[in-house]
Amino acid sequence: MNNCHEIDQRRARRLNLRQDQRGPVIYWMSRDQRYQNNWALLFACQKSRQLQQPLEVVFTLAPSFLGAPLRHYDFMFKGLAEVEASLRNAGIPMTVIFGNPAETLPAFAENRRAGAVISDFSPLSLVRHWKQNAAAAISCAFYEVDARNIVPCWLASPKQEYAARTIRPRLGALRKSFLTPFPQPVALCQPDSLLNPPINWDGLLEKLDVDRSLKPVTHLVPGEAAAEKRLHRFIDRVLDRYADKRNDPNAEAVSGLSPYLHFGQISAQHAAFQALRSMASQENRDAFIEELFIRRELAENYCFYNEKYDVFDTLPEWAKATLMEHASDQREYLYTPEEFEQAKTHDPLWNAAQLSLVETGVMHGYMRMYWAKKILEWSASPAAAFDIAIMLNDRYALDGRDPNGYAGVAWSIGGLHDRPWSERPVYGKIRYMNASGCKRKFDVPRYIASVTGEAAPMLF
């Protein structure tokens, strides 16, 4: 890579009106937890060179983050330990601070007499409020860099987009400008005296007051190196059957990158760039880019322009109207949140999907659509179904508390980014799915057996 590659300044925006000062550059690493292919870190390196000041990285640990349990913190900390090692090799210190970031980050910057503060981008309301308050309290310039999206979210569209078909041309017009390779991070002003003792990540994990009943996953190795290995395995062995087989949970035809993308352990732009250079057919490359680029950035757009992305009332008006018209329809089955959580429904296919989520932190994308729609069908009300799906996804999925998850639930249950379909009981005009449709797409008993380890009962 070219170390002198210029960073497109449209990737950054100012969150306050203050100027750069004479002092160290602070990169508040939050959502994009990686050393390579990270526009926020690259922008911080560039700012450090411009100011001829050293660069420091800080990671803030809030008392809790939207109910995340031990499973998620374990995956995150193991990835951060790898990031810290890479930063240390580059002479860049990393510090972890506890408390509300809106308070602790300004205090840290003031103590360091920071010249500029850089953060990565998140559309989630809680993080945006932290940043707004921190930016107001910091005495130097505060920049936000979209290191998550290929096209910066605020540049892709000035409003909430209606559907993939409305955002696709906007992203397509900017794709050539932004879908580029990455330079290497270079920090030139790093005195050895800056480096801290290595962080005791296991010790930090012990100090956290989080739900420890949900144990760490053992089937996935966290971190940048593992994410890169998974990407290359997908491109080399799987991508050429992605278009035809990605909706078959038995086919192992998906990338498996979702947890790594969620924790920022791999860049979607890097993954897209590598996939487009592969020998896979155009059809397969296009199908992957549609999901990784268009659909994922549509979800970011939804959360960025709609602060109530996780609330039923924010669903499209047509969808709310049709769901409420059918809210009193007779349900053939009705389950409590606890019965859903414990996979105690009448449907072995749904139960297998839920067990996969609980036991592994991962659910195949096609099954997650079926899973959410059946929660709608078997809940006391559409609003209750929406809340149950959000709760289960955020608690158990390694990629929970993410725009993709919020948009996915809103699409499945509330017609977001979709259109009205034929009317039917309970669903109204929301798109319908059933087990028979799954049977036509894949070997249902095989999927159930792969999750439960037992032969599936006769379903049809």
Automatic annotation (TrEMBL):
<protein>
    <recommendedName>
        <fullName>Deoxyribodipyrimidine photo-lyase</fullName>
        <ecNumber>4.1.99.3</ecNumber>
    </recommendedName>
</protein>
<dbReference type="InterPro" id="IPR006050">
    <property type="entry name" value="DNA_photolyase_N"/>
</dbReference>
<dbReference type="GO" id="GO:0003677">
    <property type="term" value="F:DNA binding"/>
</dbReference>
<keyword id="KW-0285">Flavoprotein</keyword>
<keyword id="KW-0234">DNA repair</keyword>
<keyword id="KW-0274">FAD</keyword>
<keyword id="KW-0227">DNA damage</keyword>
<keyword id="KW-0456">Lyase</keyword>
<dbReference type="GO" id="GO:0003904">
    <property type="term" value="F:deoxyribodipyrimidine photo-lyase activity"/>
</dbReference>
<dbReference type="InterPro" id="IPR036134">
    <property type="entry name" value="Crypto/Photolyase_FAD-like_sf"/>
</dbReference>
<dbReference type="InterPro" id="IPR008148">
    <property type="entry name" value="DNA_photolyase_2"/>
</dbReference>
<feature type="domain" description="Photolyase/cryptochrome alpha/beta">
    <location>
        <begin position="23"/>
        <end position="153"/>
    </location>
</feature>
<keyword id="KW-0238">DNA-binding</keyword>
<dbReference type="InterPro" id="IPR052219">
    <property type="entry name" value="Photolyase_Class-2"/>
</dbReference>
<dbReference type="GO" id="GO:0009650">
    <property type="term" value="P:UV protection"/>
</dbReference>
<dbReference type="Pfam" id="PF00875">
    <property type="entry name" value="DNA_photolyase"/>
</dbReference>
<dbReference type="InterPro" id="IPR014729">
    <property type="entry name" value="Rossmann-like_a/b/a_fold"/>
</dbReference>
<dbReference type="InterPro" id="IPR036155">
    <property type="entry name" value="Crypto/Photolyase_N_sf"/>
</dbReference>
<dbReference type="GO" id="GO:0000719">
    <property type="term" value="P:photoreactive repair"/>
</dbReference>
<comment type="similarity">
    <text>Belongs to the DNA photolyase class-2 family.</text>
</comment>
